[in-house]
């Protein structure tokens, strides 16, 4: 495969560039008979869409969901869902100035080396816009997970060096940065606005919690649940790291501290982050991802042009000064897709319809 | 697939349990005509094998490499290499005491919930022993990479809270913990020995540097080079996190700091860790993985038995008090496999024999 | 995967039902830098479209090609091509009468048993309309093959018991049934018109010849070139069999007759059909497929309704009385896709950019 | 992948050459908890092994089954089964004479063009010996199918132009050619012995019947059940064609004849061969494969050497004059593997543990 598909039994294939006519996704392997209305998907799209607040890009993509196949009388048929999102606010000419420059932090340089040809209008497939299809597909997966009592929630844990001190679940969707601490959220927003005014940007950390996954989900060896989640998260453009449970802090812990002991009530701690040997323990699955600062900034930066000659670049455009708030629904979407895929693989392993052996 | 295969055009499939008769690997997609001698593979196996020093398990597995197919007169034929490593020091009876207990930090509990059946002798597929086949396959990939000037080296960066302060490349293979700082190495070894004496264990951080990868390797969107490396690393039992370049530190950086600017000499920094948009930049690829403390410790721990009744467990056995030194060649092996696979996919994309368009 | 994707390095994923809003395809793994104009693809679509002559269905689908991504300034970029074909002549209400009946020869009964739910308007994914996306993708593959001198041509060999006696290559696209014998073509057309008048249908045999494939294409063991071609052809709805070279006639031949001997000029015969051990010999690749009679006929037939009660059905609609003429471009398209995929896999095997060993 | 793996949820990967040390298979995705004894697998191996009668090669491979992983206390654990079959009767020196010649009908020429290097001892991966691993894996799949009441039986239908006139199921395993007509079997054996005496060989047709498959198995579009069976069968070296149900005869039938009508008792005929739209109907699945004459014959044939100079070759060795009797268990094995894989995919589609929607 050439890299635009993800998943095995619940499989998504995306297409589209940021400044083309549309982006979208084919979702193959959808459980048939699922009641699915467009409003449910649209709700997730709206969480991702630009222009939600002062801290996101003013680019307006209404991201209106169109389902062109795979649904009949409000229910999935089991055949591929095709979801398309027409691009409504393309301004490719805005990119004329940078046609011959490599933008620092962007994939311009690497795409040209990979393909020998480059569409310079926006970031093409490397654009955050590509994730719109993922969020649409993720909504379908989320709907399936709801039926088995699984819930997924990601939120901002840290932005620009400001850390959340509390975990107030109900506050997350109420503030513009989707932080779990409303006090920290206010400081984060101030910080972002200040940086935006200077033409700079900042990064952050997003945490994700998944509840209700029954023990036994995940395949040993290469397709461990955490390995597949790691791949899913690192496949999101701005993500530079991931850690599960105690994560990097485990490096300084003793075995006697890190091991999650058990008694008849269950696990006494969750340093493992809900996954042992690549398989879910039934505890909350917890991971954090490192989000880099937005690459597009208007401060002048050194770069070269296609001929390798020194140039100065200042990326004027409509960009989020911090990606965290809008990456939250993308992280949730990818987590939903990984989980449904692994639930389906677990069903295949036991293939109850074939044999009932145990 | 059921999780025991990895890679697409250079593909490995492993089999075997820690206390069965053998472990091994089928390597499919090997470039034909490669000169390959067993000693070259054996050298990598010897770096992974137990019993190398006071800080590794005294279990003796000679890990003698047997190649049963895919080679003819010292050269690869392009057909699947099959490499088998017979287990020479199985003591399954050593596990009789824990037949009905879940060892904390191990996959006993999750395997039973996944499969409904469990082989209690050792950790089965979740054992570090499974990685022997990966190291053998990785040696083949490494040989291919040598031909294009790519080198891979991993080393211990931190153990038990003790951090390396210097980077002395030549010292790495000279100390028992494979640390890049010989002074820190002495302290690490003392720490490990002290913990081992108390029946405890510790974790650490391993860093990997890959040099000589030309720009353009990696597939956009889901099969990004960093996404595939992340999956590969998280598929190793004890790994709980990964970060590329500046990694989690990027969360507190500004865009103007994190962006790697360029001039006509090349990149001015490498916060990206050698990968932009999922594709290699030509700079050094750098990532770090978090290694958890060894789960098997002899200190008493709380657990339950198969009936859910509270029990105390003390894992007596032959285990590494710190996995870092022996995980180094496994990390290198997986990195080699990911890279060869992506080099091959790049060749497929341009398919020079089919067309020459650019 | 759930069955809507085909290929590995050149990979197509289709979506869409016959009476939904659109059908289409994502083509991933396209060689970058390929000059590709819409007219080239449209030409192949027009060969497949209905309403071409008296022997094809009067349903009018203009099948106008829209490419929404993967192309820039007339050249492929290497990112996924997305091609959509809006359905322009849906009449789902025409299917109201058969909402509760299983049409003989159709997949109505099996879809309901598979999914537990059925979209009764037309044949959904089992409709020949699904192949429109394949033909579009196949045109891209064909363009790539042209660059290496490979040509593919399929044609009708037999219809309704009338066999071609000659092979006149230039006549194929000149007659309405795409037969290689213009005299037989006249009889075939008469036969089809007569059957159509009676409300019946007929089958036939289509042969495909591929020239210019260099020796060495195809993977041994499971992904043999003939195995992948067989899968590709049997994945087309109406195909019930395939044979290569001498095919079923080989069953009655001696080894001394069937073996293709060689001398310094090359092969002395081509009973193998251009493939030995699953790998191309450099000779013409020749295979034939059996095409069943169109299932939709207006003659009354016995069937049951959803409750299992006996019913009589007469399928009134707009259907081809013989599928052969319109299946020809679908067979060519799938052959092109298989070949490009295998050319790319051969490039990956030798990965010239990585090593040059031989 | 490089071609040595088959299947998705029940996946086999084979290795080994005819004159190397061993052949074998990793079977991944085995349902856990299955009672599996070696004798059950050995029984299938014995049906495939050489030296069973006067009509098979005298080469003696005891094909003793060794399972090195994936089984514990007589039950499968769900982790990969590894089955190895050591080669016991290699005589690579017997091939010295042909080191520099291309044997007609063999893959010598194509392997050299593909890989640029060739192991001339026997046929390497193209040897029928590679199928030993398939038969071992197929026995595991067969055991799983038994639990759901599915039975698979292949048998010789025609050899050397002699056709079976009756279908006597109980006679199949009683005659040396596994023909379904004992009278025809006697003539077939005479014919084979006569040809063997002259140094020639012959082909035949093998039919396979699968009973008890419930309706709904198979994926629409590309992974149709018949498409996957076709690929599986064409992946067997000597197979040159396949047809389902009425097969090639459908080309001369009318729609009114070919359509399988229904009444409340079920289907009134089975021209479809048990598959409609790529999905099982619940009727018997029936297909036939064309088997070419054995390529190795001792009659002199024209060929060229590595330098392209004309030569005469006479393949002296231990070969079956007709492959049909020994291909029967290979065909059954591949059919079992395809079916279990599709049963598992059907389980994944409905993922009962996740949701129960219908």
Automatic annotation (TrEMBL), chains A, B, C, D:
Residues making up the signal peptide according to the UniProt record? none
Q: In which pathway does it act?
A: Metabolic intermediate biosynthesis; chorismate biosynthesis; chorismate from D-erythrose 4-phosphate and phosphoenolpyruvate: step 7/7
- Report residues binding FMN: 125-127, 277, 292-296, 318
Q: Which GO terms describe its cellular component?
A: cytosol
Q: Which cofactor does it need?
A: FMNH2
Q: Which InterPro entries match?
A: Chorismate_synth, Chorismate_synth_AroC_sf, Chorismate_synthase_CS
> Which Gene Ontology BP terms does the record give?
amino acid biosynthetic process; aromatic amino acid family biosynthetic process; chorismate biosynthetic process
Q: What PROSITE patterns does the record point to?
A: CHORISMATE_SYNTHASE_2 (PS00788), CHORISMATE_SYNTHASE_3 (PS00789)
Work out whether the entry's keyword set contains NADP. Answer: yes
- What keywords were assigned to this record? Amino-acid biosynthesis, Aromatic amino acid biosynthesis, FAD, Flavoprotein, FMN, Lyase, NADP
Q: Could you tell me what this protein does? A: This reaction introduces a second double bond into the aromatic ring system.
In the record, the note on similarity to other proteins reads: Belongs to the chorismate synthase family.
Matches recorded under NCBIfam families: aroC (TIGR00033), PRK05382.1 (NF003793)
What protein is this chain from? Chorismate synthase
Q: Which organism is it from?
A: Cohnella terricola
Upper taxonomic lineage: Bacteria, Bacillati, Bacillota, Bacilli, Bacillales
Q: Name the gene.
A: aroC
